[in-house]
Amino acid sequence: MENKYLYEDKNEIDNFNPKAIVAICFLECQGKFLLLKRAKPVFGEYLWGVPGGKQESENNIRETISRELDEETGIKIGSSVFNYIGERYARVAPWGDYILVIFYLNLPIVSNIILSNEHTTYEWVDKNDLKSFNLLKGQSEAFDLV
């Protein structure tokens, strides 16, 4: 059985103390989802995941996901178009506790992907094939929400 990393209620995690708020986006186009493969030595090296990252100086989390999508893929999209899916609470060793804010966006056409140096490659993947990838901890659970 797969480990559980994401919780609906932060009280389900003893002494929950988030180090960061992280936004991720399930980007779909023509029935396929974008996965990015992490590069070494960044967090989760060589694992696959959706675009996302920590909230920095942005005023709101929608601005965070807009910035992250631009930085990681070169796709520039205004923050108001992302569909909010929900929030989950996570404890993932060795990285600690964080709040995960999940978004979804359906693009009408495939954009040209320009990867940051945090990633080595990308793939557009059918939802039925997502879990066959070596995903970042908690990503499999997050896919179940989309």
Question: Describe it for me?
Answer:
This protein has helices spanning about 60-75, 140-145; strands at about 5, 20-30, 30-40, 50, 50-55, 85-90, 95-105, 120-125. With about 150 residues, it is mainly β. The protein has a single domain (about 5-145), classed as Alpha-Beta Complex (Nucleoside Triphosphate Pyrophosphohydrolase). Strands 1, 2, 3, 4, 5, 6, 7 and 8 form an eight-stranded mixed β-sheet that branches. A hairpin with a 2-residue loop joins strand 2 and strand 3 (about 30-40). It is globular.
How far apart the termini lie comes to: 21 Å
Average of pLDDT: 89
The 3D shape can be described as globular
Biggest sheet character: 8 strands, mixed
Strand content: 35-45%
- Count the DSSP helices: 2
Q: What is the name of the CATH topology? A: Nucleoside Triphosphate Pyrophosphohydrolase
Residue windows where pLDDT falls under 50 for at least 5 positions = none
Question: Helicity level, as a percent range?
Answer: 10-25%
In CATH, the homologous superfamily goes by the name: Nucleoside Triphosphate Pyrophosphohydrolase
**Total number of β-strand segments?**
8
Second rung of CATH, namely the architecture: Alpha-Beta Complex
Please write out the topology.
Elements (H helix, E strand, L loop, with lengths): L5 E2 L10 E12 L2 E7 L9 E2 L2 E3 L6 H13 L9 E10 L3 E12 L11 E8 L12 H5 L3
Parallel strand pairs: 2-7
Antiparallel strand pairs: 1-6, 2-3, 2-5, 3-4, 3-8, 6-7
